[in-house]
Design brief:
It is built from 12 helices and 4 strands; from the N terminus they run ββαβαβαααααααααα. A 4-stranded mixed β-sheet has the order 1-2-3-4, covered by helices on one side. Helix 1 runs parallel beside helix 2 and helix 5 packs parallel to helix 9. 70% of the residues lie in helices and 6% in strands. The chain has 372 residues and is α/β, with parallel strands linked by helices. It has 2 domains: 86 residues, Transcription Regulator spoIIAA; 235 residues, no CATH class.
Protein backbone atom coordinates (compact mmCIF):
# COMPACT_ATOMS: atom_id res chain seq x y z
CA UNK A 1 0.00 0.00 0.00
CA UNK A 2 1.43 3.39 -0.95
CA UNK A 3 1.48 6.18 1.55
CA UNK A 4 -0.89 9.10 1.00
CA UNK A 5 -0.62 12.67 2.10
CA UNK A 6 -3.65 14.95 2.02
CA UNK A 7 -5.57 14.66 -1.26
CA UNK A 8 -2.58 13.52 -3.30
CA UNK A 9 -3.23 10.72 -5.81
CA UNK A 10 -2.68 7.26 -4.41
CA UNK A 11 -2.83 3.65 -5.60
CA UNK A 12 -3.77 0.77 -3.30
CA UNK A 13 -2.66 -2.65 -4.52
CA UNK A 14 -4.62 -5.76 -3.55
CA UNK A 15 -2.54 -7.39 -0.78
CA UNK A 16 -3.65 -10.82 -1.97
CA UNK A 17 -1.75 -10.24 -5.25
CA UNK A 18 -4.75 -10.56 -7.52
CA UNK A 19 -3.83 -7.58 -9.68
CA UNK A 20 -6.67 -5.37 -8.46
CA UNK A 21 -5.90 -1.66 -7.96
CA UNK A 22 -7.87 1.03 -6.18
CA UNK A 23 -7.30 4.73 -6.92
CA UNK A 24 -7.98 7.62 -4.56
CA UNK A 25 -7.16 11.30 -4.16
CA UNK A 26 -7.12 14.05 -6.78
CA UNK A 27 -5.87 12.97 -10.23
CA UNK A 28 -5.45 16.43 -11.72
CA UNK A 29 -2.77 18.49 -13.44
CA UNK A 30 -1.78 19.98 -10.09
CA UNK A 31 -0.57 16.53 -8.97
CA UNK A 32 0.93 15.44 -12.32
CA UNK A 33 4.32 14.55 -10.82
CA UNK A 34 2.74 12.51 -8.04
CA UNK A 35 0.55 10.70 -10.57
CA UNK A 36 3.59 9.77 -12.66
CA UNK A 37 5.48 8.52 -9.62
CA UNK A 38 2.54 6.43 -8.43
CA UNK A 39 1.96 4.81 -11.82
CA UNK A 40 5.67 3.98 -12.20
CA UNK A 41 5.64 2.10 -8.93
CA UNK A 42 6.13 -1.63 -8.45
CA UNK A 43 2.96 -2.89 -10.15
CA UNK A 44 3.56 -6.24 -11.82
CA UNK A 45 0.14 -7.42 -12.89
CA UNK A 46 -3.11 -5.51 -13.43
CA UNK A 47 -6.50 -7.12 -13.87
CA UNK A 48 -8.83 -4.32 -12.76
CA UNK A 49 -8.57 -0.69 -11.71
CA UNK A 50 -11.23 0.80 -9.43
CA UNK A 51 -11.25 4.60 -9.89
CA UNK A 52 -14.55 5.26 -8.18
CA UNK A 53 -12.67 6.57 -5.14
CA UNK A 54 -11.04 9.39 -7.13
CA UNK A 55 -12.23 12.75 -5.80
CA UNK A 56 -11.28 14.93 -8.80
CA UNK A 57 -10.24 13.94 -12.31
CA UNK A 58 -9.18 16.02 -15.31
CA UNK A 59 -7.72 15.34 -18.75
CA UNK A 60 -4.16 15.10 -17.43
CA UNK A 61 -5.15 12.32 -15.05
CA UNK A 62 -7.10 10.43 -17.70
CA UNK A 63 -4.18 10.60 -20.17
CA UNK A 64 -1.81 9.26 -17.53
CA UNK A 65 -4.14 6.33 -16.86
CA UNK A 66 -4.54 5.57 -20.58
CA UNK A 67 -0.77 5.55 -21.05
CA UNK A 68 -0.48 3.27 -17.99
CA UNK A 69 -2.95 0.89 -19.62
CA UNK A 70 -0.99 0.81 -22.90
CA UNK A 71 2.28 0.16 -21.06
CA UNK A 72 0.77 -2.85 -19.29
CA UNK A 73 -1.09 -4.11 -22.34
CA UNK A 74 -4.54 -3.95 -20.79
CA UNK A 75 -7.78 -2.70 -22.25
CA UNK A 76 -9.67 0.38 -21.17
CA UNK A 77 -12.59 -1.76 -20.08
CA UNK A 78 -10.76 -2.83 -16.90
CA UNK A 79 -11.19 0.68 -15.47
CA UNK A 80 -14.20 1.58 -13.33
CA UNK A 81 -14.95 5.32 -13.06
CA UNK A 82 -17.60 7.34 -11.31
CA UNK A 83 -20.62 8.26 -13.42
CA UNK A 84 -19.74 11.96 -13.44
CA UNK A 85 -16.25 11.11 -14.80
CA UNK A 86 -17.41 8.82 -17.61
CA UNK A 87 -18.04 11.57 -20.19
CA UNK A 88 -14.56 13.06 -19.73
CA UNK A 89 -12.89 9.65 -19.94
CA UNK A 90 -14.80 8.76 -23.13
CA UNK A 91 -13.85 12.06 -24.80
CA UNK A 92 -10.15 11.72 -23.91
CA UNK A 93 -10.12 8.08 -25.00
CA UNK A 94 -11.42 9.02 -28.45
CA UNK A 95 -8.77 11.66 -29.16
CA UNK A 96 -5.93 9.70 -27.49
CA UNK A 97 -6.33 6.62 -29.65
CA UNK A 98 -2.87 6.03 -31.11
CA UNK A 99 -3.53 2.73 -32.79
CA UNK A 100 -1.85 2.53 -36.23
CA UNK A 101 -4.06 2.99 -39.27
CA UNK A 102 -5.17 -0.09 -41.08
CA UNK A 103 -3.13 -0.91 -44.12
CA UNK A 104 -4.83 -0.35 -47.42
CA UNK A 105 -6.54 -3.44 -48.71
CA UNK A 106 -5.75 -4.14 -52.36
CA UNK A 107 -8.23 -6.97 -52.79
CA UNK A 108 -11.09 -7.06 -55.28
CA UNK A 109 -13.72 -6.24 -52.68
CA UNK A 110 -11.77 -3.20 -51.46
CA UNK A 111 -11.22 -2.00 -55.04
CA UNK A 112 -14.94 -2.36 -55.72
CA UNK A 113 -15.69 -0.39 -52.55
CA UNK A 114 -13.31 2.41 -53.57
CA UNK A 115 -14.95 2.50 -57.01
CA UNK A 116 -18.35 2.80 -55.37
CA UNK A 117 -17.19 5.64 -53.13
CA UNK A 118 -15.68 7.43 -56.16
CA UNK A 119 -18.92 7.10 -58.14
CA UNK A 120 -20.97 8.36 -55.18
CA UNK A 121 -18.58 11.28 -54.68
CA UNK A 122 -18.71 12.23 -58.37
CA UNK A 123 -22.49 12.03 -58.29
CA UNK A 124 -22.52 14.45 -55.36
CA UNK A 125 -20.31 16.80 -57.38
CA UNK A 126 -22.78 16.65 -60.29
CA UNK A 127 -25.70 17.41 -57.96
CA UNK A 128 -23.76 20.31 -56.41
CA UNK A 129 -22.95 21.72 -59.88
CA UNK A 130 -26.58 21.52 -61.03
CA UNK A 131 -27.75 23.17 -57.80
CA UNK A 132 -25.12 25.88 -58.20
CA UNK A 133 -26.27 26.46 -61.78
CA UNK A 134 -29.86 26.88 -60.62
CA UNK A 135 -28.83 29.30 -57.87
CA UNK A 136 -26.87 31.40 -60.34
CA UNK A 137 -29.73 31.46 -62.85
CA UNK A 138 -32.13 32.68 -60.15
CA UNK A 139 -29.75 35.40 -59.00
CA UNK A 140 -28.90 36.38 -62.56
CA UNK A 141 -32.63 36.86 -63.22
CA UNK A 142 -32.78 38.95 -60.05
CA UNK A 143 -29.90 41.03 -61.36
CA UNK A 144 -31.80 41.67 -64.59
CA UNK A 145 -34.78 42.90 -62.55
CA UNK A 146 -32.49 44.91 -60.23
CA UNK A 147 -29.60 46.14 -62.44
CA UNK A 148 -27.93 47.91 -59.51
CA UNK A 149 -26.78 44.48 -58.28
CA UNK A 150 -24.56 44.03 -61.36
CA UNK A 151 -20.88 44.71 -60.60
CA UNK A 152 -19.84 46.30 -63.88
CA UNK A 153 -16.32 47.20 -62.75
CA UNK A 154 -15.61 43.65 -61.59
CA UNK A 155 -17.10 42.21 -64.80
CA UNK A 156 -14.90 44.41 -67.02
CA UNK A 157 -11.83 43.56 -64.94
CA UNK A 158 -12.47 39.84 -65.36
CA UNK A 159 -13.13 40.32 -69.08
CA UNK A 160 -9.65 41.77 -69.39
CA UNK A 161 -8.12 39.01 -67.27
CA UNK A 162 -9.98 36.19 -69.02
CA UNK A 163 -10.02 37.52 -72.57
CA UNK A 164 -7.39 40.09 -73.50
CA UNK A 165 -4.61 38.49 -71.49
CA UNK A 166 -5.30 35.11 -73.11
CA UNK A 167 -5.33 36.30 -76.73
CA UNK A 168 -1.59 35.75 -77.46
CA UNK A 169 -1.61 32.21 -76.05
CA UNK A 170 -4.84 31.20 -77.78
CA UNK A 171 -3.73 32.63 -81.12
CA UNK A 172 -0.26 31.06 -81.00
CA UNK A 173 -1.40 27.58 -80.03
CA UNK A 174 -4.29 27.61 -82.52
CA UNK A 175 -1.93 28.70 -85.30
CA UNK A 176 0.47 25.86 -84.51
CA UNK A 177 -2.30 23.25 -84.23
CA UNK A 178 -3.69 24.42 -87.59
CA UNK A 179 -0.25 23.94 -89.12
CA UNK A 180 0.05 20.46 -87.60
CA UNK A 181 -3.36 19.41 -88.94
CA UNK A 182 -2.38 20.63 -92.40
CA UNK A 183 0.89 18.66 -92.26
CA UNK A 184 -0.84 15.46 -91.13
CA UNK A 185 -3.63 15.82 -93.69
CA UNK A 186 -1.21 16.44 -96.54
CA UNK A 187 0.78 13.31 -95.64
CA UNK A 188 -2.27 11.13 -96.27
CA UNK A 189 -3.92 13.11 -99.08
CA UNK A 190 -0.70 13.34 -101.11
CA UNK A 191 -0.89 9.57 -101.78
CA UNK A 192 -4.17 10.17 -103.59
CA UNK A 193 -3.09 13.34 -105.39
CA UNK A 194 -5.63 15.35 -103.42
CA UNK A 195 -3.38 17.71 -101.47
CA UNK A 196 -5.73 20.59 -102.22
CA UNK A 197 -8.32 18.97 -99.93
CA UNK A 198 -6.16 20.03 -96.98
CA UNK A 199 -8.03 23.33 -97.21
CA UNK A 200 -11.37 21.67 -96.41
CA UNK A 201 -9.78 19.53 -93.69
CA UNK A 202 -8.38 22.52 -91.80
CA UNK A 203 -11.49 24.62 -92.35
CA UNK A 204 -13.98 22.06 -91.09
CA UNK A 205 -11.75 20.88 -88.21
CA UNK A 206 -11.21 24.37 -86.83
CA UNK A 207 -14.61 25.84 -87.48
CA UNK A 208 -16.51 22.91 -85.97
CA UNK A 209 -14.23 21.47 -83.29
CA UNK A 210 -10.67 22.60 -82.70
CA UNK A 211 -11.26 26.33 -82.44
CA UNK A 212 -13.77 26.18 -79.60
CA UNK A 213 -12.26 23.05 -77.99
CA UNK A 214 -8.70 24.42 -77.81
CA UNK A 215 -9.96 27.70 -76.42
CA UNK A 216 -12.11 25.99 -73.80
CA UNK A 217 -9.29 23.67 -72.69
CA UNK A 218 -6.85 26.57 -72.42
CA UNK A 219 -9.30 28.60 -70.36
CA UNK A 220 -10.13 25.55 -68.24
CA UNK A 221 -6.48 25.31 -67.24
CA UNK A 222 -5.82 29.03 -67.07
CA UNK A 223 -9.06 30.65 -65.91
CA UNK A 224 -10.89 27.97 -63.92
CA UNK A 225 -7.81 27.40 -61.77
CA UNK A 226 -7.43 31.16 -61.25
CA UNK A 227 -11.08 31.49 -60.19
CA UNK A 228 -10.74 28.62 -57.73
CA UNK A 229 -7.50 29.94 -56.25
CA UNK A 230 -8.82 33.50 -55.91
CA UNK A 231 -12.12 32.56 -54.27
CA UNK A 232 -10.50 29.78 -52.23
CA UNK A 233 -7.96 32.24 -50.80
CA UNK A 234 -10.82 34.55 -49.85
CA UNK A 235 -12.60 31.66 -48.12
CA UNK A 236 -9.46 30.68 -46.19
CA UNK A 237 -9.00 34.31 -45.07
CA UNK A 238 -12.70 34.43 -44.07
CA UNK A 239 -13.38 37.25 -46.51
CA UNK A 240 -16.42 35.42 -47.89
CA UNK A 241 -17.81 35.16 -44.36
CA UNK A 242 -17.21 38.89 -43.95
CA UNK A 243 -19.15 39.53 -47.17
CA UNK A 244 -22.11 37.59 -45.81
CA UNK A 245 -21.82 39.41 -42.46
CA UNK A 246 -22.12 42.73 -44.30
CA UNK A 247 -25.39 41.54 -45.81
CA UNK A 248 -23.97 41.07 -49.32
CA UNK A 249 -24.34 38.05 -51.56
CA UNK A 250 -21.08 36.27 -52.56
CA UNK A 251 -22.79 35.02 -55.74
CA UNK A 252 -23.48 38.59 -56.85
CA UNK A 253 -20.00 39.78 -55.98
CA UNK A 254 -17.77 36.84 -56.90
CA UNK A 255 -19.53 34.43 -59.26
CA UNK A 256 -21.81 36.34 -61.63
CA UNK A 257 -19.13 38.84 -62.79
CA UNK A 258 -16.78 35.97 -63.61
CA UNK A 259 -19.41 33.94 -65.44
CA UNK A 260 -20.58 36.97 -67.46
CA UNK A 261 -16.97 37.78 -68.37
CA UNK A 262 -16.49 34.24 -69.70
CA UNK A 263 -19.80 34.36 -71.59
CA UNK A 264 -18.61 37.46 -73.43
CA UNK A 265 -14.96 36.61 -73.97
CA UNK A 266 -14.99 32.87 -74.76
CA UNK A 267 -16.90 33.29 -78.07
CA UNK A 268 -14.52 36.12 -79.04
CA UNK A 269 -11.48 34.00 -78.20
CA UNK A 270 -13.02 31.12 -80.14
CA UNK A 271 -13.33 33.34 -83.20
CA UNK A 272 -9.68 34.38 -82.84
CA UNK A 273 -8.68 30.72 -82.50
CA UNK A 274 -10.56 29.85 -85.68
CA UNK A 275 -8.85 32.60 -87.67
CA UNK A 276 -5.43 31.64 -86.27
CA UNK A 277 -5.98 27.98 -87.11
CA UNK A 278 -6.98 28.82 -90.69
CA UNK A 279 -3.89 31.01 -91.02
CA UNK A 280 -1.74 28.14 -89.76
CA UNK A 281 -3.13 25.85 -92.45
CA UNK A 282 -2.64 28.56 -95.08
CA UNK A 283 0.99 29.01 -94.02
CA UNK A 284 1.72 25.31 -94.43
CA UNK A 285 -0.03 25.30 -97.78
CA UNK A 286 2.02 28.25 -99.00
CA UNK A 287 5.45 27.13 -97.76
CA UNK A 288 5.29 23.32 -97.89
CA UNK A 289 2.44 22.17 -100.14
CA UNK A 290 2.93 24.50 -103.14
CA UNK A 291 -0.53 25.99 -102.67
CA UNK A 292 -0.24 29.77 -103.16
CA UNK A 293 -2.15 31.92 -100.66
CA UNK A 294 -4.42 33.16 -103.45
CA UNK A 295 -5.35 29.59 -104.47
CA UNK A 296 -5.75 28.56 -100.83
CA UNK A 297 -8.03 31.50 -100.14
CA UNK A 298 -10.06 30.90 -103.30
CA UNK A 299 -10.55 27.23 -102.40
CA UNK A 300 -11.54 28.20 -98.88
CA UNK A 301 -14.02 30.78 -100.20
CA UNK A 302 -15.64 28.19 -102.48
CA UNK A 303 -15.90 25.35 -99.96
CA UNK A 304 -16.44 26.96 -96.57
CA UNK A 305 -19.96 26.76 -95.15
CA UNK A 306 -21.58 29.00 -92.57
CA UNK A 307 -23.11 26.03 -90.73
CA UNK A 308 -19.66 24.81 -89.63
CA UNK A 309 -18.93 28.19 -88.09
CA UNK A 310 -22.30 28.29 -86.32
CA UNK A 311 -21.85 24.77 -84.94
CA UNK A 312 -18.53 25.73 -83.39
CA UNK A 313 -19.72 29.04 -81.99
CA UNK A 314 -22.88 27.48 -80.51
CA UNK A 315 -20.76 25.48 -78.09
CA UNK A 316 -18.77 28.45 -76.78
CA UNK A 317 -21.42 29.80 -74.34
CA UNK A 318 -21.99 26.32 -72.91
CA UNK A 319 -18.27 25.85 -72.29
CA UNK A 320 -18.08 29.32 -70.74
CA UNK A 321 -20.81 28.50 -68.22
CA UNK A 322 -19.20 25.15 -67.37
CA UNK A 323 -15.75 26.68 -66.82
CA UNK A 324 -17.05 29.61 -64.79
CA UNK A 325 -19.40 27.62 -62.56
CA UNK A 326 -16.95 24.82 -61.77
CA UNK A 327 -14.10 27.25 -61.07
CA UNK A 328 -16.21 29.34 -58.69
CA UNK A 329 -17.95 26.36 -57.04
CA UNK A 330 -14.65 24.65 -56.24
CA UNK A 331 -13.35 27.91 -54.77
CA UNK A 332 -16.38 28.26 -52.50
CA UNK A 333 -15.92 24.64 -51.32
CA UNK A 334 -12.42 25.30 -49.95
CA UNK A 335 -12.21 24.29 -46.29
CA UNK A 336 -9.86 27.05 -45.15
CA UNK A 337 -6.39 25.52 -45.45
CA UNK A 338 -3.67 25.94 -48.05
CA UNK A 339 -3.86 22.22 -48.82
CA UNK A 340 -7.58 22.51 -49.52
CA UNK A 341 -6.95 25.39 -51.94
CA UNK A 342 -4.47 23.27 -53.89
CA UNK A 343 -6.75 20.24 -53.95
CA UNK A 344 -9.76 22.24 -55.12
CA UNK A 345 -7.70 24.03 -57.78
CA UNK A 346 -6.53 20.70 -59.19
CA UNK A 347 -10.08 19.35 -59.02
CA UNK A 348 -11.49 22.34 -60.91
CA UNK A 349 -9.00 21.93 -63.77
CA UNK A 350 -9.65 18.19 -64.06
CA UNK A 351 -13.43 18.60 -63.91
CA UNK A 352 -13.62 21.44 -66.43
CA UNK A 353 -11.34 19.80 -69.00
CA UNK A 354 -13.13 16.46 -68.65
CA UNK A 355 -16.60 17.97 -68.85
CA UNK A 356 -15.69 20.19 -71.82
CA UNK A 357 -14.39 17.20 -73.81
CA UNK A 358 -17.44 15.08 -72.89
CA UNK A 359 -19.88 17.81 -73.93
CA UNK A 360 -17.96 18.41 -77.16
CA UNK A 361 -18.06 14.70 -78.02
CA UNK A 362 -21.79 14.46 -77.33
CA UNK A 363 -22.43 17.62 -79.36
CA UNK A 364 -20.39 16.27 -82.29
CA UNK A 365 -22.42 13.05 -82.32
CA UNK A 366 -25.69 14.96 -82.08
CA UNK A 367 -24.83 17.39 -84.89
CA UNK A 368 -23.68 14.50 -87.08
CA UNK A 369 -26.98 12.64 -86.67
CA UNK A 370 -28.90 15.86 -87.27
CA UNK A 371 -27.05 16.33 -90.58
CA UNK A 372 -25.50 19.65 -89.53
Amino acid sequence: MSATRGNAPAIEVDPQGGGHLRLSGQWTLEHALSIGSALRGDIAQVKSVDATGVERLDSAGVLQLLRFARRHGIGYDVFSFRDDHQALVAAIEDVADERPKRKRDYGFQAALARLGFAVADNWKEVIALVSFLGENLVKLARTIVQPRRLRITATVYHMEQVGLDAVPLVALLSYLVGAVIAFLGSTILADFGATILVVELVNIAFLREFGVLLTAILLAGRTASAFTAQIGAMVSREEVDAIRTLGLDPIDLLVIPRVLALLVMLPLLTFIAMIAGLLGGMSVGAFSLDIPPQAYYARMHDTIELRHFLVGMSKAPIFAVVIGLIGCLEGLQVKGTAQSVGERTTSSVVQTISLVIIIDALAAIWFMHMGW
